[in-house]
Amino acid sequence: MLQITLETPGRFAAADVPEPSAGPGQALVRVHRIGVCGTDLHAFRGRQPFFSYPRILGHELGVEVLDPGDEPGALRRGDRCSVEPYLNCGRCIACRRGKPNCCTELKVLGVHVDGGMRPVFNVPARKLHASAKLTYDQLALVETLGIGAHAVERAQLTAADTVLVVGAGPIGLSVIQFAQVAGVQAAVMDVSAARLEFCRRQFGVRHILPAGPAGREPLLEFGGGDLPTVVIDATGNPASMAGAFELAAHGGRIVFVGLFPGEITFQDPNFHRRELTLLATRNSLPTTFREIIALIEAGRIDTGPWITHRFGLAETPERFAAVAADPALIKAMIEVAASG
What we know:
Elements: E1 2-8, E2 11-16, E3 26-35, H1 38-45, E4 60-67, E5 80-83, E6 86-87, H2 93-96, E7 107-108, E8 120-124, E9 128-130, H3 136-155, E10 162-166, H4 170-181, E11 185-190, H5 193-203, E12 207-210, H6 216-222, E13 230-233, H7 238-243, E14 253-256, H8 268-273, E15 277-280, H9 286-297, E16 307-312, H10 316-325, E17 331-335
Parallel strand pairs: 10-11, 10-13, 11-12, 13-14, 14-15, 16-17
Antiparallel strand pairs: 1-2, 3-4, 3-8, 3-17, 4-5, 5-9, 6-7
């Protein structure tokens, strides 16, 4: 079978390898769709922390169960599933306290261990979430939606909150969708006018704000004269993240979704004067995957606008660089096998 490996930054290699069989506690799955994540783009450019080469990328996956394996459960041959790619130990303090997303020994498929850029591979059966209704495209998008959903969970939004989402990339878009599901007013700020227009057109966001000083007055108008009570920064940009401390209302909350592999600084008197709450968010929880699948099945989350680019697995070495550089990119979907 065809296997695509990121050998070094900027260089994919194709190889013909044998198909595996299911191992203990593992389900054998056929990969139908692979969503291209920001993590994949960073790895391709050589800017992904906690990463080593060579690596088989691919953790946003829509798969079909070929063999459910020997672990008791509800999986059956032919089930369509989303893959929860966070391989946790089950023993550490985070796992024991119901937070496997930040396990002390966490390994993520396609990042710390090999992922799904291959037609068939093994996945722990407990990491598969089935749906009888969703397409493989939709199932591949559950993981990236989960990042935004968990950020909204961490923010603990109430009806009295006003929310500013900073960054209108895929993670920011997922935050917007789940803020809307929570019934909370959300504004979005970005440096890209095209991305802001995408939010207005595709997600009905009424308050789209330019980044920088020009966005200050419309931000106050959005809050009726007040700054937002919740700022969720999805940029991974240190200047933007540091600036979030100036954008949140007194008594407000800041949630960092994007990761910057370095130090973020802020002015402590401002932080204390406003009595701000700062929250980090990492990955998502197993329950979040199931909730998202139910929301998509119910028609409350529309994944249709997300996919802007498509190509086949065999085309990856030739097409990835051009797709990654396209400013119109929101989400690329790699097609591995035909689906019904």
